[in-house]
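Agenda item 2: zinc ion complex prediction
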Amino acid sequence: VSSKEFCRLGWRRAQRHGVRMLLALFVVCGSTRAGEDPVAIPYDPAQTIIDAALGDTYAYDRLGELCDQIGPRLAGTERMRAAIAWAVQTLQQAGFDSVWTEPVRLPLWERGEEWARVTSPEPFDLTLLGLGNSVGTPPGGIEAALLVVESFEELESRAAEAAGRIVLFNPTWRGYGETVRYRGGGASAAARHGAVACLVRSVTDASLATPHTGMMTYADSLPKIPTAAITVEDAGRLQRLARRGAQPRVRLSMGARTLPEVESFNVVAEIRGREKPEDIVLAAGHLDSWDTGTGAHDDGAGCLITMGAARLLLQMGLRPRRTLRIVWYEAEEFGGIGGRAYFQAHRDELDRYVAALESDSGAFPPRGFSVQADSTIVQRLQTMARPLANLEAAEVQPGWSGVDIRPLVQAGVPGIGHRTRADDYFHYHHSPADTFDKIDPEALARNVAAVATLLYAIAEADAPLRPIGSATAAPGSHE
Ligand SMILES: [Zn+2]
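Presented output:
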C-alpha cells in the first residue's frame, strides 16, 4: 500500500470513526514542508473523488436503463410517469436519505400523426417533426404554395407574398441562440402576414437527414398556424427549387393538439448535511425529453451526472457539511414548467440555498462551469474547480446557468451551469438520434468527477458560498 493509498483508506475510516482518527491522519499525511517527512503526501479529497468517479460506471449503467428501458419521456405522458417511478426507485436504491415527488401541473401536448409531401413540381415526401406546442391542421391537411425565406428580414421584405402560403424559414446556422428564434417565433411571424402554416429548417449545424423538434410559442394576438421542422436537406432542396422558379407546393397534415392540464411530478432526493443540514446545495437535470430519440444527452445525462456525483460522495463516506439536494425536473422542454413549480413550492426556504447547479449540456467531455453570480463567487468557484485541471474541466466563467434553476437564480441564489465540450451537441439535440449509443462512458464519468468535486467543495467549504440565513430572504418571499 503506497502512502497515498494509505491516506485514502485512512480517510474513509476517519469519516466513519470521527475526529480523533482524523487528527491522527493529519499527523501522518499532513502537509509536507521543508524538514518534514518527504514521503508524506497531503490528503487531497478532490483527487480522491476524481479517481473514484473515473473508475465507476454507475451513472452510465443507470442512464442506459433510463434511455433503453423507459425511452422517450415527453412531459406529462404515460412514459414520463414510468420514468418518474423508475427515478424514485433508483434514487432510493442509491441510498439517498430521502426521496420524494412534488406536483407539477402542465398542459399535455400530443403530437398525433403527421406527414408532409411536396406535390409539385415533382412529388416527394418530407421528413418532419411537429414543433412542441403547435396546433394541428384540419383533417386531411393543408395544401399551399411555399414561400421560402432565409430570415425574418426577408419575410418582411416579401410580406405581400405570404398570404395563403406555407412559409418555410431556411436560416443559415449561426449558433443555437440565434438560429432557434425561427423555431420559436417563425409561426407567428408568418401568421402576421396571412400564412396558413410554417415550416422551419431543423436547428442544427450538421445533418444526416434527421429532423429536430423543440418548443415554439404563439403570439396571443395572431392566428395559431401549424408548424413543423423539416430536415436541413429538404429545406435546402425546396429553397433551390424556389430559386429556379419551380414554385413548390406542399401538403401538410398534423394531428397535434394540446389537451387540458395534467398532474405530473418533479423528483427530489437529498443527502442531509452532517453539520448544517438546513443549508442546501441544489444540483439538477431535467427528466423529461422530447418524444423522439430517448433523451440521452438531453437530459438523461444531466440527471445521471448530478445524481451520480452525489451518490459517489455517499459511497465514499464523504457526507458533506451541508445538504445536497438533487432535483430532476419535469417539463423543462415546455419552457421550464417544473422549475417554476419547484420555485413556487419552495419560496419560503430561499434563504437556505447556498447555490444551484444545473447540468443540461449533454455528456460530452467536460469543460467547466458558467456562473450567474457576483464576481467574488465566480472567483471562489474558480479556486474550487482548480483540481479539475487534469480533467480539462476547470474553466469557470460568468455566464448562463440553466432553465430550471432560473427562478432560484433570479431570486438571488448563485446559479452554476455545468458545461461540456458540446461541439457535436446539435447533431443529436431534439432529434431521433439522441440515443444511448451516443454516450461515451469515459466522458460521462469525467463529468461525474467534475460535478462531484465541485459539489463537494461547495457543500463542505468552511464559509458558505454566499451569506445565508434570514438576513438574505428574497424580497417578496412571503407574499
Ligand atoms: Zn435539456
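Discussion summary: Residues 286, 298-299, 332, 360 surround zinc ion (CB under 6 Å).
Owner for follow-up: CH.
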